[in-house]
Amino acid sequence: MNPFSCTNSLRLALNCFASLLLCAVLLPPAVFAQSQTQSQTQPAPAPSSAAQDSASALTAALSAACRQNPTDFANYLTSSNAAAFKNLSEHDQLSLMERFVLLDTKGRPLLATTTDARTLLRCEAADASQGFTFSAPEAHDNLAYIPVTISSGESLRFGLVREDSNWKLLSIGLLLIDIPQLQKEWASQSLKENEQSVIDLLHGLQQAVIRYQDAFGRLPDTLSQLGPTEKGQGVSPSAAGFVDSDIASGVKDGYEFRYRLNTPAGSDTPAFEIAAVPQQYGKSGQRSFLLDEHGHVHAADHRGAVATLDDPLIPDQPAQSQ
Q1: Which of 27, 34, 137, 148 lies in disulfide reach of 51, CB 3.0 to 4.6 Å?
Q2: Coil, strand or helix: which one is 319?
Q3: Closest by Cα among 181, 168, 198 to 299
Q4: Neighbouring C-beta atoms of residue 221, cutoff 10 Å
């Protein structure tokens, strides 16, 4: 599995990558046998100083990510990655550290020892936690490798390199950690997942409009009429309670939603269309979308302009009608 390329849905994909990315960060618990001729029944020798130092560096890096401390975290990146990391926005720095610990909020790092004498590091946040269990580290000159198993049971070997006498994060499995490239991949993945969320929102809005028509005998004039009711008041044509306040205002997930009524050619029955365009082209989304009168979504890159009925349909959509 390529830890730098998750192909599942965003949150899962993100977590998949993040779980593997961080899965190699911690203390060495067990002991690395240095002599292949030594009997397995004999006590294993103590870890070398280099192995201990590399494991300590991994522990400190993961702990810094858990605490969401960018200054400390940068100390355990190679010089090129540290420079790239420091140039990231605060949001992107936090996002990167969150990926390392698979948690969305700041946590507290806690160390423990398992029943088989391996080191366990847990990042404890308010509503979730993630654990990392470490096997014996192996150090050779200026390189060190530490196998780590995360809470899900996945395991991978994390690599470190000695740079100016200090151990720095280097690799996951056979892949080098390249923060500038990773940021490009993550941004692309996040954009695609956000676009999928917008497609889902369009289908949800379509169903809300249909429910409104069933309830009040006509189509709503605006999206705001689908929104939540005022406190202490019941549903009404002006506040049907079918969608949340964000989407009722016409803005959600970095997209602007535009609803309009129309009468198709050759018909006396009014219909509706809903367009969605990115508020920040290239950041919140790249494609524009249009839900047509049949409930199908058209999509194309219009550099932030509105999509049209001539644009290609999103494949594999459920057949729906208004």
Answers
A1: 137
A2: coil
A3: 198
A4: 12
Torsion angle (degrees, nearest 10) of CA 145, 172, 122, 146: -10
Beta-carbon contacts of residue 14 (< 8 Å; ≥ 6 apart) = 6, 99, 186, 189, 190, 193
**Structure tokens given for 265:** 């050619």
Confidence of residue 8 (pLDDT cuts 50, 70, 90): very low
| Residue 151, SS3 per DSSP | coil
Per DSSP (E only), the strands in 179-309 are: 251-252, 255-262, 271-278, 288-291, 297-300
CA 308, chain centre distance (Å): 30
State residue 281's pLDDT score.
94
CA 58 vs CA 69, 167, 249: distances in Å: 15, 8, 46
The answer to whether 111 and 121 are in contact (CB under 8 A) is: yes
Kindly tell me if the per-residue pLDDT of 123 is higher than 80: yes
Nearest-angstrom CA–CA distance, 177 and 193 = 23
Q: Cβ of 185: how many Cβ atoms within 10 Å?
A: 14
| Domain locations along the chain | 10-177, 190-300
